[in-house]
Design a protein that fits this description.
Helices cover 24% and strands 26% of the residues. The protein is an alpha+beta fold. A seven-stranded mixed beta sheet has the order 1-2-6-10-9-8-7, sandwiched between helices. It has a three-stranded mixed beta sheet with strand order 4-3-5, with no helix packed on it. Helix 2 crosses helix 4 (197-207).
Amino acid sequence: MRARPLTLIRDELVEYDKAMERMTDLVGQRQRDERPDTLWLLSHPSIYTIGRRTPLSHLPDPSRGIPVLETGRGGQLTYHGPGQLVGYLIVKLDEGEGIVDYVREVELRLVEALGKLGLPAERRDTPPGSELLTGVWTSGSGRKIISIGMRQSRGVTSHGFALNVDGDLTPWDWAVACGMPDVDMTSLKRELGAATMDEVRAAVAAAFEAS
């Protein structure tokens, strides 16, 4: 994997709609070469986001009280909430490099970060005709710990990944995550017994060469 240093932005809890507004601004700046490649680390209040192809049957019961918002990224339903580290990647792709190529790089960098935190993990190839297995799984328990949904516009990526650190996993059970009814979502706390957001942020930033 070649060197690709990023500029790091760090925030705590940011409302999803406000984050989308800022991400749009960051993408425009990158398209105009007004800023370098960027990793933005943050968290969101509880919300489900869905892709354009997400079936209605995958959505949670409205009585759960968590808002659902359609977003422009690829992928299916994802839950965001406190205790989850979200990373938005605003990166200009190289000539001949596609979004699928970059998503694979993102997966590998996140596998590296989890390894440094003491959790062996892996990316998966998608069998023909199956729902996309984009993301990162634990090697031991086989549970999914990171969701990834990205897109590109005029050669610049947006959206990114969501890594479950120490938040409540129950909302994942109220909907069909990632288009996979049988997926078992997990967190670093569930797998390792303990995890702090500060150490996870540091490991992720290092894996993406972000400072």
